User: Fold this.
Amino acid sequence: MRRRSTDAVIARFAVKLVTMVQPIKIRRALVADAPDVYAVLMAAKKDIPLVAFDDDKGRGLVRDKCRDRKVWVAEIDGNLAGVALLGLSIWCLPYVPEISYLATVNEYRRRDVASTLVRYAVKVIYQRDRNGVIVEVWDRNLPTIELLTKERFKPHPTRQKPKPQGQDPRPYFVTYFLGDVP
Assistant:
């Protein structure tokens, strides 16, 4: 009996090990990918700011961003593992490249999917003769803040919003940057 359970543990570990070493492929999302991208974003709604996103307007926005070739997806073994939107900031620091809506599918977390997306986005930005990139993140999204710090992003000195006085439970944005950002 004990032998079977040990064999089962070894078999589960082998399956996990094989899935952990599968390569991550990054590509631009197609319009056909929009429903899957939307599903990944909605699953990550508690970690990323999706205001008024869970309706047909939100689906249309995702479809439009895929059509405009601004959404990048990470795939593992042909399955969608993560998404990121890459564009120019409008609100935070105008016309500075920004990575937004970075999300990973739950079953692919802790497999460097988000890190690979961030590294790839930075590479694309620098190839386009841009000198820096920003990411706005909720202050409570500690895994993303840890990831950005690991990827050499720093808190922006003038774009940090002070924490409201008292016991305000609402999250607020902090801005991280890499490179030459005003």
User: Anything to note?
Assistant: The chain has a mean pLDDT of 81. The first strand starts at residue 24 and ends at 28.
